[in-house]
């Protein structure tokens, strides 16, 4: 990127354009082009699971990035299903649905403080969390257990607790996905989801947690690639001045950093292109552009070129880039403020998961149990994070099967004379999973069912456990309750 053709008077413009970008890269060490562009003013990076091996490696990586510039170092660490620090093993912290089920804001604050301490120790200064969506659509394919719940007031109070927890550790919170992704039935990684709600409904439902987070001092807010016709017309909110400038900046009075959701998602690229979407998002009011994991060095070069070209032809005022740079500079200054010492190492994640798990029916007395886990396809937001009981049941037979391939008679024969435990994840969204569980329970009504997603579909099992998430901590808490 440093060979971008600019005149002597354009170097400042180049730095302004580059300063709006959060780029990604593959591997556990930084490529030379990223270090070079940090020297040239690149805004920062977004890290993913493929960038993280362990805390020591991550700390070394962020140290090398910081030696080259003054980057915003961000990642998605929500706890629960969405984790980057523990991408390869599963999170030791339950996610928002579990915390919302407990409904103890002190616990939520402590969990997010622990997450913040871990991030800060690794050199990460911005967490793209918490999720402040009000999950009113049961079949929402992208939010689900990432939300604290479906009640606006509950989501608001826990969003505030999460913001306070993260920021007390010196890690900026990024409250997402504005103006609300909880009422959608489409995944913005794949298409533009629709929120067909009036402005009155938005104010009464979706915007309540964001308003609370702004009042609580959230350092950043992430946009949503959702279309809200009453607000954004035909545009996704990430590209809508009505959403980001008129509503968020004007009506809600927010003056922190606005960060786009990943621009490589098809909700943006299919219609506007990566570089075109970047310019439109900046013009609408975004300060930092999260590019996502797909764009290459060449793509980043093209985006910077397009931003510069847009300032020359009048599509993007230079003043808009200067405004964004000023907000990001204030955020960097906040990063350098003194903080409280990290809290002592604790088991707060497991404590929270234990409090969240709920039991309907008697606790089973298991004899030589067979645990059958019905596989669930990973979502793009979560990735292929391990889940299930295997880490906690080393001496128990755990059978992982694809629902469409399940041999129900074979499973029943294999479970004859043994206790049977059926484990599902968001069964309400997967008819094949429900069919397999129903068929097994018809013969084995004594079986225990463990739901590791949202407990919306509740079969008539002798014992039913809901964990409100599939994090490592959730599985451990359920295994303890089952006594296996």
UniProtKB/TrEMBL annotation:
Q: Which residues form the Glycoside hydrolase family 3 N-terminal domain?
A: 39-331
Which SUPFAM superfamilies is this protein grouped with? (Trans)glycosidases
**UniProt xrefs under InterPro entries:** GH (IPR017853), Glyco_hydro_3_AS (IPR019800), Glyco_hydro_3_N (IPR001764), Glyco_hydro_3_N_sf (IPR036962), NagZ_Beta-hexosaminidase (IPR050226)
- One Pfam family per UniProt: Glyco_hydro_3
Task: List GO molecular-function terms, semicolon-separated.
Answer: hydrolase activity, acting on glycosyl bonds
Keyword Magnesium in annotation: no
Question: Which terms are listed as keywords in the entry?
Answer: Glycosidase, Hydrolase
Enzyme class per UniProt: hydrolase
Which EC number(s) does the record attach to this protein?
Answer: 3.2.1.-
Q: Which family does it belong to?
A: Belongs to the glycosyl hydrolase 3 family.
Protein name, UniProt field: Glycoside hydrolase family 3 protein
For this protein's source organism, the top of the classification is:
Bacteria, Bacillati, Actinomycetota, Actinomycetes, Streptosporangiales
């Amino acid at each position: 990127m440093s060979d971008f053709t600019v005149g002597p008077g354009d170097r400042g413009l180049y730095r302004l354009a580059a300063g709006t970008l959060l780029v990604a890269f593959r591997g556990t060490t930084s490529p030379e082009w990223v270090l070079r562009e940090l020297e040239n003013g690149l805004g920062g990076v977004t890290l993913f699971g493929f960038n993280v091996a362990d805390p020591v490696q991550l700390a070394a990586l962020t140290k090398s990035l910081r030696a080259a510039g003054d980057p915003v170092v961000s990642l998605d660490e929500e706890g629960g299903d969405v984790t980057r620090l523990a991408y390869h093993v599963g999170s030791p912290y339950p996610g928002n649905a579990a915390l919302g089920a407990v409904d103890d804001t002190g616990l939520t604050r402590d969990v997010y403080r622990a997450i913040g301490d871990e991030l800060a120790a690794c050199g990460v200064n911005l967490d793209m969390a918490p999720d402040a969506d009000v999950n009113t659509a049961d079949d929402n394919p992208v939010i689900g257990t990432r939300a604290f719940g479906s009640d606006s007031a509950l989501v608001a109070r826990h969003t505030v607790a999460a913001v306070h927890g993260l920021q007390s550790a010196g890690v900026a919170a990024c409250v997402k996905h504005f103006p609300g992704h909880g009422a959608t039935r489409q995944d913005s990684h794949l298409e533009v989801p629709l929120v067909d709600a009036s402005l009155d409904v938005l104010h009464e439902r979706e915007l309540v947690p964001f308003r609370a987070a702004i009042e609580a001092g959230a350092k950043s807010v992430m946009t949503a690639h959702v279309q809200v016709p009453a607000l954004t017309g035909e545009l996704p909110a990430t590209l809508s001045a009505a959403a980001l400038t008129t509503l968020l900046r004007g009506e809600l009075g927010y003056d922190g950093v606005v960060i786009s959701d990943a621009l490589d998602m098809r909700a943006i690229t299919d219609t506007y292109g990566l570089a075109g979407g970047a310019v439109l998002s900046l013009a609408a009011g975004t300060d930092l552009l999260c590019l996502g994991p797909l764009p290459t060095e060449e793509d980043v070069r093209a985006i910077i070129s397009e931003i510069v070209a847009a300032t020359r032809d009048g599509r993007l005022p230079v003043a808009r880039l200067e405004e964004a740079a000023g907000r990001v500079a204030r955020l960097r200054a906040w990063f350098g403020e003194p903080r409280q010492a990290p809290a002592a190492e604790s088991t707060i994640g497991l404590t929270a998961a234990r409090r969240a798990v709920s039991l309907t029916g008697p606790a089973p007395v298991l004899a030589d149990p067979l645990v059958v886990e019905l596989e669930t396809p990973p979502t793009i937001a979560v990735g292929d994070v391990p889940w299930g009981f295997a880490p906690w049941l080393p001496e128990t037979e755990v059978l992982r099967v694809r629902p469409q391939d399940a041999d129900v008679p074979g499973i029943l024969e294999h479970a004859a004379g043994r206790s049977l435990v059926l484990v599902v994840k968001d069964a309400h969204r997967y008819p094949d999973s429900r069919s397999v569980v129903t068929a097994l329970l018809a013969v084995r009504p004594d079986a225990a069912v463990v739901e590791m997603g949202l407990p919306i579909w509740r079969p008539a099992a002798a014992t039913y456990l809901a964990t409100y998430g599939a994090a490592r901590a959730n599985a451990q808490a359920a295994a303890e309750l089952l006594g296996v």
